[in-house]
Design brief:
By secondary structure, this protein is of the alpha/beta class. The protein has 8 helices and 7 strands. The strands form 2 sheets. The protein has a 5-stranded mixed beta sheet, with helices on both faces. It has a two-stranded antiparallel sheet with strand order 1-7. Helix 2 (71-84) crosses helix 5 and helix 3 crosses helix 4.
Length: 290
């Protein structure tokens, strides 16, 4: 059986070149997936998946890696992606779930659920940095994918804006930490606030700096968290601007049953970190199934 020839896409060919090459190979619906909040020590992890429309409609003015855009530019691109994308999905994983399951396990599960929630279903998947197994479609992990592939960049913007809005809302509920400014990342100001008033329930107690600030130990069990305050509103449901009329929040129990109290990602506990394939100067694509 003859294997199809490789398609080589130069990194300087533009943000849309990778998806265009995949469409020429017969993959009509190319999805990109990315996340926001992996490096934060407070707040949720947010994953997003996007399928852009083909042709001119799929070209988003100002689209780029979310980290390279100003806050105002991200908001404009966010609105354009939601309006013009063929499909999009956002999944929010709360901090206590990260403590129970582990960051990387939650990250992979959230990406799978975001991709599984797309309609039409993706025929090829591009992810940023590392591969995601169990998708039922061929895929490729692209180094700095949010700067190489338009659909990954679009996913990074959806994830970033969604998470930033949630962190601003948390700033009002938990004053004194500066969540609206640093968005839960371990800045000097955030660390000073942790030392001054200790962590709140939206901090990740499986992180060493949070564990140390809690006065427990440098490496506490993931289950050792403070009790949630009475009447706590789940962070995934707190921002009325997220998911209005479009089912953007995609946390579900296994077998697709919604959790009415708290969004819980059903994941395998023995998930292992998979090292991404190394890519050279150009991106090489092959249609292997994951």
């Amino acid at each position: 059986m003859l294997t199809p020839p490789r398609t080589v896409v130069r990194r300087d060919a533009g943000l849309y070149a990778l998806e265009q090459a995949l469409r020429r190979r017969g993959f009509a619906h190319v999805a990109g997936a990315d996340e926001a909040g992996r490096g934060a020590c407070a707040g949720p992890l947010v994953a997003a998946a996007v399928v852009l429309a083909p042709g001119r409609r799929g070209e988003i003015h100002g689209l780029a890696d979310s980290k390279l855009l100003t806050s105002a530019a991200r908001e404009r691109v966010y609105a354009s992606v939601r309006d013009r994308a063929l499909a999009h999905r956002v999944v929010v994983v709360p901090a206590d779930e990260i403590d129970r399951r582990g960051l990387h396990v939650c990250n992979l599960a959230a990406m799978r659920r975001a991709l599984a929630g797309l309609s039409p279903a993706p025929e090829y998947v591009l992810t940023d940095g590392f591969g995601v197994d169990g998708l039922g479609a061929p895929g490729l992990a692209v180094w700095k994918g949010d700067r190489v592939a338009a659909c990954v960049a679009a996913a990074s913007v959806l994830a970033k804006v969604t998470r930033d809005r949630l962190m601003v809302e948390l700033d009002g509920r938990f004053p004194g930490y500066g969540f609206a400014e640093h968005k839960g990342y371990a800045t000097a100001e955030h660390q000073a606030a942790l030392s001054r008033q200790g962590p709140c329930v939206e901090h990740r107690f499986s992180y060493v700096n949070v564990a140390a600030a809690s006065g427990r130990s440098a490496s506490p069990p993931r289950s050792r968290r403070p009790a949630a305050e009475a009447g706590r509103t789940d962070v995934a449901k707190a921002d009325p601007t997220v998911g209005a009329g479009s089912a953007d929040i995609g946390i579900r129990e296994p077998m697709g049953r919604p959790d009415p109290i708290r969004g819980t990602v059903g994941v395998a506990l023995d998930e292992q970190l998979r090292q991404p394939a190394l890519l050279g100067e150009d991106v090489v694509m092959e249609g292997g199934w994951r």
